[in-house]
Amino acid sequence: MGTFIKFLGTAGARIVVSKQIRASGGIWFQHDKLAFFIDPGPGALVKALTSKPKLEPWKLSAILLSHRHIDHANDLNIMVESMTEGNTKKRGMVFLPKDALEEEKVLFSYLTPMLQEIVLLEEGKEYSIGNLRFATPCRHWHPVETYGFKFYLKDNLTVSFITDTLYNPKLQEAYQKSDLLIINMVRTKPDNANAVMHLNADDVEKLVKAIKPKMAVITHFGMQVILNKPWKIAEEISQKTGIQVVAARDGMQLDLESIFKNSVQHTT
Ligand SMILES: [Zn+2]
């Protein structure tokens, strides 16, 4: 089965998501027999089931929500229903920020009795799903409570997801020693007032330079990025940083064992 990450969508922000210019189904993460899901946006269930080969949500052990915005959380309930086999089997965990459970309840109450555990995410904490450890090293700068994830895989491989956030220097420290860095890059340029609180291409360049992963992937594209061709922006960042940067495509699968087979040791 192996370890892979499959992008069931690469859309970010309002226009690209609401017009489905890119899909917005979130990310399936398979780590040997353990499967979990990150940010089930609109279309997550359908994209999983129509994926080839089919990804079966009733095999998920957990669903992780970085924050409660609709492009990340829309399909949370239906994915929970599928994970619990139509709300008939008590199984699976949901990890989410407190404000997604209290301030704006994005998880329906009637589904919660069938979940094995609901875990609130907090800054600087570690968690486990089966034998997989992960951390939420810092709270992101975003209009609602938001966290990124750092997964500690077998063979000393660290995979980090920098989800929605405004750039801040704390991110470099928080996500250091990541072998694979996945970054939500919604914009090419800063917006005037930084009101949307998202990363742009210059921010990604700074982060890649500072963190020095073996490979970086950009995803969660807004309209500006789509119009400027994500793969061109990725290529530019690669040239400026000397690190391989790839623009995610809908349905793209990263097989971590083949990408990292010769280099799983950290250079400090
Ligand atoms: Zn957001």
TrEMBL record:
InterPro entries: Metallo-B-lactamas, RibonucZ/Hydroxyglut_hydro. Residues 37-221 form the Metallo-beta-lactamase domain. This is MBL fold metallo-hydrolase. It comes from Thermatribacter velox.
